[in-house]
Amino acid sequence: HHALPLWRRGNKLFVGVSDPTNHQAINDIQFSTGLSTEAILVEDEKLTDAIEKFFDSHSTGLEDLADVDLDGVDIESIDDNNQDAIAGQDADDAPVVRFVHKMLLDAIKSGSSDLHFEPYEKTYRVRMRTDGMLREVAKPPIQLANRIASRLKVMASLDISERRRPQDGRIKMRLSKSKSIDFRVNTLPTLWGEKVVIRILDPSSA
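The structure assignment produced for this chain is given below.
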């Protein structure tokens, strides 16, 4: 679409475009992010360079995820049983951690039954099943696919070094002292990386 998200302010996402009449690009970004959008005119050459740098730069992807807004979210803790693996994680993974937590919280709030983290050859997407329908809710940079899968596996106490065989695990998210949510986690090797499917279990059992 030749458009690139520039920054976020609250629930508004500012998107750089070289063609202000490209309403389709703005609408697509608004649909995929769930945020209101405002177009910012950028010279075509500069926008092209920025898009190329965005997809070529690993750190840019992390900066993008660092903008995930968790304001107002009431979350006491997430049980991370695999402490050795957590201790070995790079500090740069903090944005990935925030992104994963945000996806889990969004799934709970929307009443979704499951959450799919799916790698493809050139893209990566996250989908939620709500009312029986799978819908795309996020498209993080493909360069972060392994980090996202590893974070989910750490949370579910799975072997992060095993990427060739399916694994099953669980995550417990404590929303408060009296309420927690359980998630069942399944990993599946694919041609382009590990797919992770998370099922939200009945919170009444918590």
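Interim note for the steering committee: The chain has six helices and ten strands. The two ends are 44 Å apart (CA to CA).
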